[in-house]
């Protein structure tokens, strides 16, 4: 009996462990989760007033980062963003959600659309929002309201318009933001610091924050100035310290101003060029040149006050051209301020005039053409001409004279509105001569007395000892060295408190050899750094450099005093001593 044939035995496969199954399911869930992600978006309201915040909520069942909010900034301002997460279990299933809340503030009225945003590879649907005008807040009845003041509702193209926002609030504020958007085709610039005050309106006390802006339109036509907006948080009960520490109640506070329409006028064909639209322009002499001498600089200051412009719009005060003299201008100084809602710019510029000779000098007044936006007419602001008497100078200018001026035509000074010139000190020939004659006579008397004393001193007999006489004949007299008129303390004081003209005069007076200008001073200096500092001083005086930098260079270079060159007569002095020693 043969044994039965054996058949191969099939072993049963062992079941996978539970941990492996769970891990596999988790991997599959992770791979397929993005495809199953659900994202939706909605607004908390479909209708809102201008300035009223609107919340855009975006919900997803997955975490997502901050989406690109740039598409929203066309019609909305993004005020705040916040993220919240929720997780719950229903029938053994865990569900979670992430909600991003974006607080928006409409920039304009009308039918607006909240554009789609990309979140986790998906795009949210566009949402419609109707924005209407906000009802005007009644002063004295609301906790906060805004006043908007425009200094000119019918400006010209490129005219600077002053815009003033005033926020009135009657409750303590923890935080807040006051904004206004620039219309298209314009520039809106905030200037100055906020001004705070208190006012009583309809029996209620308000705190007031005043903020200034400058608006310039580049095109004519109707211009819609949007309403200003304020959003903030007001402190509730519990006192000020409780509110600051977060222990008191807080509430949202908002206010919206009123939009305004400006009618921008085009530039008139008859307007002077360059185009300078202003509310007012006045010129005056802040100081006049006095005691003019040939070859020496004397300064005068011109001041201009322009209403309705910024410093960037104003041209530089021109430098007058004077026959028989050189005129140099220093950089202008500007001072900005506000008169109500109107910007005001004050320009101050110092000039130095150097006559070429003695005689009568005609200084023409500065003139500026501008357009009067109030009267709709061309104007010219002008300073009066001055006739100056120049005394004789020294050195090469002692005998230099000015040519006789041509007889001036009898032309009345311009009386256009806006022209202004304050009275200038009379520097005519008659008054100058009347003041100088007593001094000239007194100087002549003292001069005669001095000459008589000198003649007597030189002619009186003086016995000279033989040893002294022989010694005097053997040793030649040392060459006389002129004494400097100024010293280092004078230079330091001028660098700290004086003008650049005074610094130059003191440097000229410090030279060991007579010098009539800074070129002669540089020729006597041995230190290159000191010569470079004087070169910077000249550039700053003639409106071609930086005055502050020139002062710094001068302080550094002349800290220990000027370094003068060895006099050219040094070799001659050495030859004078040579006969004392035998030559071989």
Automatic annotation (TrEMBL):
> Pfam family of this protein, just one?
BatD
Among its keywords, does the record have Transmembrane?
yes
Q: Organism source for this protein?
A: Pseudoxanthomonas winnipegensis
Q: Which sequence ranges are marked TM in the entry?
A: 436-458
Q: What is this protein called?
A: Protein BatD
- InterPro entries per record: BatD (IPR025738)
Q: Which UniProt keywords are given for this protein, alphabetically ordered? A: Membrane, Transmembrane, Transmembrane helix
* Superkingdom assignment: Bacteria
